Amino acid sequence: MIKHIYLGFLNGIDETEGWRWYLRYHSKEVMRFFGPWLRRYETFKVLPPPPEAKPFGAVGGYFTELWYTSIEEFNEAKAAQRPYTFPEWVKQSPPEAIAAAKTIVPVMPTEDFLGKEPTPEEKHILRWCRSIKYPQGVTLADGEEWYLKVHSQEVKQQIGLLRYVSHRNLNPSPINTPWVRTEELWYEDFKTWHRAVIESPPKYTSPPWGNIAPFMDIASVFIGYKPFVDFLRDNPLIP
User: Fold this and answer.
1) How far apart are CA 236 and CA 226, in angstroms?
2) By residue range, what is the domain housing residue 55?
3) What is the average pLDDT across 213-230?
4) Residues forming beta bridges with residue 68, ordered by sequence position
5) How many helical (H) and strand (E) elements, i.e. helices and strands, does the chain have?
6) Most buried residue among 64, 151, 172, 223 by CB atoms closer than 10 A?
7) pLDDT-based confidence at residue 141 (cuts at 50, 70, 90)
8) Where are the beta strands (DSSP E) in the chain?
9) Is 109 within the bounds of a domain?
10) Rounded CA gap, 216 and 206, in Å?
């Protein structure tokens, strides 16, 4: 099973105007065009990122996941080729307004660095979702060697980190995307995140290509555990 991810959807667009268009038109067209192939269609409202998260490419907007049984069904649905209705303010916006990052990844993580998942009913969950790519000139093999054997092993030492998983982007991918992975790091709240990432992070080993953290190109969002709207089950009110 795979999921098509839009990270930072409608970032920078007026919230009321963007959400109204999304509910009235775009989500309806998605359901009409390829709803029969969808297993899940969930949108999360992004939590306002703290200023300290800016070096990690943190953006606002929304985070959407569309699940399919297989890549064959995604291709059959032709999700990336449909004639969607876009208002003028979307057409005139930078590409980042449609999504800071778009990827297709397996639903199940390709790596689970901690090997555990907390029970959401027992504590609050803050999910930090990050799409990553290696800097220009760094080969995929070199980037993955450092990420898997060095960086991830140091990241998982963060104080208060509850879950740390990574999804390797499908290769070849049916969509044109420069992103290599989408990963999730879970914390209990922003205070815990700040302590783990800003105040008392582990000592990180610089990669061969440079020593300026965070060492990779990143686009990220902060979301809660449950979606804002589940389009296959909910009937949201249109503002």
Assistant:
1) 15
2) 2-230
3) 95
4) 2, 38
5) 7, 10
6) 64
7) very high
8) 2-9, 38-45, 62-68, 101-106, 111-112, 126-133, 163-168, 181-187, 217-223, 229-230
9) yes
10) 11
Give the total residue count for the chain: 239
Domains of the chain: total: 1
Which DSSP letter does residue 60 get? -
Report d(CA 41, CA 234) in Å as an integer: 10
Confidence of residue 91 (pLDDT cuts 50, 70, 90): low
Residue 22 forms part of a structural domain: yes
pLDDT per residue as tens digits for the range 186-219: 999 999 999 999 999 999 999 999 888 899 999 9
- What are the backbone angles phi and psi of residue 68, rounded to the nearest 5°? -130, 155
Q: How far apart are CA 162 and CA 181, in angstroms?
A: 20
Q: Give bridge partners of residue 183 from the DSSP assignment.
A: 130, 166
For 110, residues 6+ apart whose C-beta sits below 8 A from its C-beta are 166, 167, 168
Measured distance CA(135)–CA(133) in Å, rounded: 7
- Strand 217-223: give its sheet, edge to edge: 111-112, 163-168, 181-187, 126-133, 217-223
Residue 130 in domain: yes
pLDDT tens per residue, range 14-40: 888 889 999 999 999 999 999 999 999
DSSP one-letter code for 161: -
Q: Considering only the C-alpha atoms of the chain, give the largest distance between any 2 of them, rounded to a whole number of Å.
A: 51
The domain that holds 90 is classified in CATH as 3.30.70.100
**Domain assignment present for 235:** no
Look up the pTM and report it: 0.94
